[in-house]
Amino acid sequence: MQFRDRREAGQKLAEALSFLQGQKDVLVLGIPRGGVVVAAEVARALGAPLDVFITRKIGAPGNPELAIGAVASSGELVIDEGLVLGLGVSPRYVEEETERQKQEIARQMTLYRGHRPPPQLTGKTVVLIDDGVATGATTLAALRALRASAPAELILAIPVGPPDTVERLSAEADRVVCLHTPAWFWAVGAFYEDFSQTPDEEVIRLLQEMAG
User: Fold this and answer.
1) Is residue 87 part of a domain?
2) Span 85-93, mean pLDDT?
3) 89 and 156: one domain?
4) What angle do CA 71, 107, 89 make, to 5 degrees?
5) Structurally, how many domains does the chain consist of?
6) What is the per-residue pLDDT across 117-150, written as a single tens digit (0 to 9) for each?
């Protein structure tokens, strides 16, 4: 399965989430930046408000694309201790990189949300959406942080992800909806015809348009 772009992925994901139509207290959260485009299509189809939940990857030294952990906007920190040990990453590096990512989260929160208060999650059906998962580090941090807010139901919805990652994340959510779990998985972008970077301006526009 290949998606034309993030909008089409969101439309197909919305079909798989149609059981939520008409339900009260549904909140759709997109992980920026690309996840917000997918989430906007779902929120529009369900008639639910859209907001953002920010997590940042903690990249390995010299290889920022390799996630050795992740931190969420709530401060929730997830570290892959096995990978950190295997790569010989120092505690000082982890600490400094975590702080750097927290600063970037604060910048993005101000940019995307302005002075709007964060949404109330307690007792709601929360649908967390990204444009796909690979290692799942950032998604894991997000799910654990969201769980701490005591939602009535926590749903992870993604267009694509490797089977082992999806299975691992299933232990953190009440329900996982994933459209495609290919056995041969190399990168999320490989399953999109257009996986161009989403600009901040697009995220801001969608959040303003679909805010509750």
Assistant:
1) yes
2) 95
3) no
4) 35
5) 2
6) 888 999 999 999 999 999 898 899 999 999 999 9
This prediction's pTM: 0.91
Q: Are residues 20 and 67 in the same domain?
A: no
Q: Residue 197 is part of which domain span? A: 6-54+116-210
Q: Tell me, what CATH number does 123's domain have? A: 3.40.50.2020
- In the structure, what pLDDT confidence band is assigned to residue 212 with cuts at 50, 70 and 90? low
In a domain, 1, yes or no: no
Q: What is the 3-state secondary structure (H, E, C) of the chain?
A: CCECCHHHHHHHHHHHCHHHCCCCCEEEEECCCHHHHHHHHHHHHHCCCEEECCEEEEEECCEEEEEEEEEECCCCEEECHHHHHHHCCCHHHHHHHHHHHHHHHHHHHHHHHCCCCCCCCCCCEEEEECCCCCCCHHHHHHHHHHHCCCCCEEEEEEEECCHHHHHHHHCCCCEEEEEECCCCCCCHHHHECCCCCCCHHHHHHHHHHHCC
Question: Which residues, listed in sequence order, are joined to residue 155 by a DSSP beta bridge?
Answer: 127, 175
